[in-house]
Predict the structure of Glyoxalase family protein.
Amino acid sequence: MLNDIKGLHHVTSMAAEAQQNNDFFTHTLGLRRVKKTVNFDAPHVYHLYYGDETGSAGTVMTYFPFPHIRRGRPGTGEVSETLFSVPRGSLGYWKDRFAAQGVGVLGEEEHFGERRLRFQGPDGDGFALVEVADDPRAPWTGGPVPAAEGVHGFRGVSLRLRDAGATAELLRFMGYQEAERHGGITRFAINGNGADVIDVETLAEAEPARQGAGSVHHVAFAVENREAQLRVRKALMDTGYNVTPVIDRDYFWAIYFRTPGGVLFEVATNEPGFDRDEDTAHLGQALKLPRQHAHLRPRLEQMLPEIRD
């Protein structure tokens, strides 16, 4: 069993429109945009990062806004819901806020002893705000949401699978332990950075998901540094997983592998962080380009749509 995984690092999804995506996460949810860069493989598309003040591991939601992308179709083999931690007693504030801003609320419920408010993002993304007592992580206070109701970071993610057996085995190998079962959903938990739970739902007869706008592309797990990442990579490969080489993503190093249930997992380092090319006070303001795309700056600045803050 691995002991280097520290919870979630980030969750990366796809969107249809950059301005709409930016407005939802910064104006509606009150997160900070901590980086404005481009997709490594498709530099004509933004890669936008939202999180806490510094983009701490376990707080960062990232998006590829592909213009004209079709909407995804929910199903199995995907992250079905991303869970955010908010202070206990704050759901009333969020219900009023969402009603005022026209956010699609799916309902309020109690799940594994935690009150949650389920809602949709602008592309039909599946989200929930989960009341968590005494989450020590500080919300971003430079946005429109007061600290007393602010998002602390992720609580975790929910996976929807046709057969959860092999993925459950993988999670145990990664250091997660089965915490509870309820209504066909199994919760796995780890003592990590606060983004500590993975809920696995089994729907044996459901159709496979089709990725598109509103779909999660991959979920990333945090390790402290590159040495820990290499240990994880070797252990996964020794177990039979096909893991990519280490890839420099500028703000972290990453490895990727496909899970038995079809979800793409990443393991990302906490180093070097989002302040490697911007000071903390100005995170997410300037367009930052990967080194291999720096020569494209004049063209990209003309092609990429303006994002108004």
Observations:
- DSSP finds five helices and 16 strands in the chain.
- Helices lie at 18-28, 91-101, 165-173, 226-239, 297-303.
